[in-house]
Amino acid sequence: MSASTSELASRVRGPVHVIGAGLLGASVGLGLRERGVDVTLEDLSPTSVALAADYGAGRARAESDPEPALVVVATPPDVTADAIERALIRFPNSVVTDVASVKLAPFEELTRRGLDLTNYVGSHPMAGRERGGAIMARADLFVARPWIICRDHETPAEALALIEAVALDLGSTPLEMTPQEHDRAVSLVSHLPQVVSSLLAARLVPATDQAIGLAGQGLRDTTRIASSDPELWVQILGANRRPVIEVLEAFQSDVAAFADALRDPEQQGAKRRIADLLSAGNRGVARIPGKHGTSERFAKITVLVDDRPGELARLLTELGELGINMEDLRLEHSPGAQIGFAEIAVLPEVAERAVADLVERGWRTL
After folding, report:
1. Is the same domain home to 27 and 123?
2. For the whole model, what pTM was predicted?
3. Which residues lie below 8 Å from residue 357, measured CB to CB, with a gap of 6+?
4. Do 56 and 30 touch, CB atoms closer than 8 A?
5. What pLDDT shows up at residue 329?
6. Total of domains in the chain
7. Same domain for 266 and 238?
8. Of 158, 177, 196, the domain-final residue
9. Helix 270-286 crosses helix 241-263 at what angle (to 10 degrees)?
10. pLDDT for the residue 6
């Protein structure tokens, strides 16, 4: 076996059946197919199955196919419990998992129905894109992302190992949490940001074109996920409403406190309250894991890049020639000007040398 083939050898033994041929389901299929796993696909829409198959995510399941080792349910949240129940009945010897972004609601519903959940292990890869569908699927969608696994005391070791094998095959980092822990965590790090981003973007609807024309990268950053599918998020937020309401009410309290201090900034203590709230934001953002799963902060260098073909590629090439490792990259265009800004994150100890070397090569920095 060649080195490249060996590197792509799968940890999964046996075929995998994916129910739901949208973004997550097709991405699971693409990633496993790269490792030689036999992936079959199923969806209420034959067109979705055909499209995912055309992209290489697997093939339509045939009646003669053997029972899969694993069934991955990747359906919309409002039908996840139904799809899991059908899979458990239809494939009694298979391990069944789902990739829904809410874990407690389907588990409680399946328990209420009295199903034997020995072979069911809920999971959730912390990955996605603003747009859905197989056309947006990627084999590397889950790389370096946490994959939450919600086991219980009845979960067989081999079932847990199979879910972990899929997560590792797809480049994820498996983590164990209870359904309650998972739902509380995602209400803060995923669901609250979606609501805040959407509500902020909604304030742009009545704004004038002149005001919108002044938009910079800060607005783009904070509204990026506002283009997500409203129908999907209605389902997600409804299924996780209790934890989401808790973090929304805490956020609402912070906004009210900030507005109260700003209403009369000359009153005693007002400026301190404003500063404290902003400083809390500094401390919070410093806790967000960065590259390689650390919260290390990087120095930022902004380079002016002419808006013509090949300029960005030239900049990246020269960074490599200078031996400067780029930890992150963000691009911003200047409205009405043929120029852009490349904000490059580097280790603090190389920032000064990086600026000097780039300027020496003719680049303009800010």
Report:
1. yes
2. 0.78
3. 322, 324
4. yes
5. 85
6. 3
7. yes
8. 177
9. 140
10. 40
Strand ranges across the sheet with 364-365:
328-333, 339-346, 299-306, 364-365
Assigned token pair, 341: 């800004």
As beta bridge partners, residue 342 has 303, 331
Regions in the chain scoring below 50 on pLDDT: 1-6, 292-293, 295
Output the six-digit token pair for 345: 């994150």
4 located within any domain: no
Do both 37 and 93 map to the same domain? yes
Q: In terms of domains, do 82 and 218 share one?
A: no
Establish how many alpha carbons lie within 13 A of residue 108's alpha carbon, considering only the half-sphere containing its beta carbon.
10
Q: Are 143 and 170 in contact (CB under 8 A)?
A: yes
Cβ-Cβ contacts under 8 Å for 10 (sequence gap 6 or more): 32, 35, 36, 37, 165, 169
Cα separation values, 338 from 218, 304, 331, 334, Å = 20, 10, 14, 7
Instruction: Assess if residue 252 is contained within a domain.
Output: yes
Give the SS3 label for residue 45: coil
Residues 139 and 256 in one domain: no
pLDDT for residue 3? 40
Q: Looking at the structure, tell me whether residues 25 and 146 fall in a common domain.
A: yes
Same domain, yes or no: 205 and 108: no
- Give 206-251 pLDDT, tens digit per residue: 999 999 988 888 898 899 999 988 998 999 999 999 999 999 999 9
Report the Cα–Cα distance between both ends of the chain, in Å, rounded: 51
Write out pLDDT tens, residues 75-129.
999 999 999 999 999 999 999 999 999 999 999 999 999 999 999 999 999 988 7
User: Domain of 109?
Assistant: 10-177
CA–CA distance from 200 to each of 197, 204, 221, 231 (Å)? 5, 7, 11, 18
Confidence (pLDDT) at 287: 86
197 contacts 227 by C-beta, under 8 angstroms: no
Co-location of 98 and 168 in the same domain = yes
Domain boundary among 156, 177, 198: 177
